[in-house]
Amino acid sequence: MTSNRAASPARQRWTATVERVRDAGRTFTTSSPARFAVLVFSSLILLFTALLSLPAAAADGRHTPLADALFTAVSTICVTGLSTVNMGEHWSPLGQVIIYIGVNVGALGVLTLASILGMAISKRLGLRAKLLAAGDSNPLRAHGGPVNEGQTIRLGEVAQLLRTVALSTLVIEAGLAVLLYPSLLLGGVDPLTALWEAPYFAAMSFTNTGFVPNADGLAPFAHDYFFMTVLMAGVFLGSIGFPVIFTLWRHQWHVRRWSLHTKLTLITTVILFFAGAIVFVSLEYDNPLTFGGMDAWDTTFQSLFLSAMTRSGGFSVVEIGDLHGSSLLAGSMLMFVGGGSASTAGGIKVTTLAVLALAVWSEAKGRPSVQVFGRRIPSDVQRVALSVVAWGATIVAVSTITIAQITKAPVDQILFEVVSGFATVGLSTGLTQELPDSAVYVLAATMFMGRVGTVTLAAAVAASSRSQLYSMPVERPIVG
Where are the transmembrane segments (predicted)? Predict the structure, then answer.
């Protein structure tokens, strides 16, 4: 009897402690969802850094240096694809499995992943958490700006969106793996190894990561156009974004029912895809190290493949370091734009570019508002788009200058690597594997900021949003 009475207060104290921790977690999740999202990604990176540092994760059975383990963890969770080591040779089967799991976790997206974990803590999605999850398809929702509920995802559809994310990831990767398996067999890969490499390639294409499980990369499949086309299809599906997949799944080919976000994403993506291919052909047709030694069909296909990979794919057949400096600059511009919002791609996003282009066109035409497809784009959306570009350009500029000062390497190569990291693309001139540890940490931070997103990062560090009940007098400075 005495022991039971003594244990009762201890049990009560333990229960009270658990409740306080649960309440604190619920409060933090609902009151500061952006910070919680950043915390989730940071924790995942630390976890996978520890896992990749294990001797069993390396092929030689030794500890992987901290800089390499951390960089690979960031590149994995941020689904970037850059690496300081040879991915096909350095990691053991266990290490490859860890990376495979990491890219699929990272592909869920920082906001979607944070929402799912928030549901596990609070048992339900509160209003602010719903705003956060919806903000994955529209950054204005996280800022509390006026939003037309007809565009992208309504709050009541958040749970359905989360289910769509998980289901579409599973179905699309499984379908890609089935299509890739015969090509691997024809390419000389034994059936058992192909059972592993097929889902690995499928995951790396849909998540827009670009890691390869073999030391030779895509070289054995350079002329297997079916294999390469499947990879491009996976990259395209991953880069258009889950809200677009959600809309296409609901309305299919009923174009008039598509949201403005879906229309702008698809149109801008297609335009950049073909425009990028034309640019690469124009700049590289006489380069004997890249397209100069190919026939017309190979040149056309490889230029399309390279353009598709700048959406954030990260796969490459030609040596990126062999491209002309003009091609590296063009590739940097394409990578900086990236893919669609709430997608596995990075960059400033194609809708950001579309909104700014429409704003410039409207200003040139003297129109009082930005209009497209019978809809008016409000000024707050334009301000967010401008902010995203400004923050992205600042991050790229600071990282480029810092790494240039550390390494003294050619600026065009450094800029390409930095933009590839910021936009989570993964294409590399080979410079990343030669960087000293200090530059590796700078590039890792760039990848993290690029994946988390400039809007989310800004919201995470902001103390709070304050309402202003008055307005200042208007005065117009001279611009231009």
Answer: 36-54, 97-121, 161-181, 225-249, 261-283, 333-361, 381-402, 439-463
